[in-house]
Design brief:
- There is one protein chain.
- This protein is mainly α and about 300 residues long.
- The protein has one domain.
- The chain is built from 13 helices and no strands.
- The longest helix is centred in the first third of the chain and has 29 residues.
Length: about 300
Amino acid sequence: MSGKPYPWAVLGVLVIPAFWAVNYLTARLAPGVVQPHTLALGRWLIVTLVLGGVCRQDIWQHRAHLRQQWRQYLVLGFFGMLVCGAWVYVAAITSPAMNIALIYTSSPVLISLGAAWWLRERLTKQQLAGFVLAITGVLHVVLKGQWSALSQVQWVSGDFLVLLAAMSWAVFALLQKHWPSPMGAFARLAVMSFAGCLLLLPFVAWEWLDPAHPAWTWRASELVLLAGVFPGIGAYAIYAWAQRVLGASRVGMALYLSPLWGAWASWGILGEPLGWHHLVGALLILPGVALVQMH
């Protein structure tokens, strides 16, 4: 691939997981403050209103396409906004961070294999080597350099939800490529977010019918705003655009950087210590990403 958009798309692959790291922090802080589906609805409602307003002409011009393909957008909203958006918040209540990071490592592998098998994207030996390096680096980070800990992972109910979310993300990424849209990336995201909001509404109503639901506070509003602006508008918009430039398998590599960015964010915001395993992981993950991005 060549042209001016390419280097910006590669940079976007590095920025996406930084924005997702905000979502990890939000998920940690949300229990007891705002319920999972309510947080997800607030996140995607912000995306819908902001991008829908900015891209209203684009959306209106393609109203015939939307009338014809509305089922596709509901499917994308289900996989991308309901499952990936809300179930991770539910999972964070019971799943340790190590489990979540380990399970999400499978998502880029599924994207890459799916892109090669279903979308006929070509995978080179160089890219496969990059995948191996990146996976090794991610595991080294989440295991804190203690590889024996891999056999000590305890599965809980949240682990199963994270696994479903990882599979859902792969399906969401591949379907966007399989179902091309005449709309721009931002307009398409606005429509998918709106579909996701519709699907989330029954779950939010169920949460608020529970007498034990937490009262709404300014802290809850802050968490919704963080989730809407960074992992909502920022990460998904860049992902949708970069995928058009680089292809599904290459942009899927962004997920390999998420545990690394999450560790840095935890150190800077939550005061969690950084260790040598983070540096070693970076020295494996970043070259791995570079190998996949080379062309």
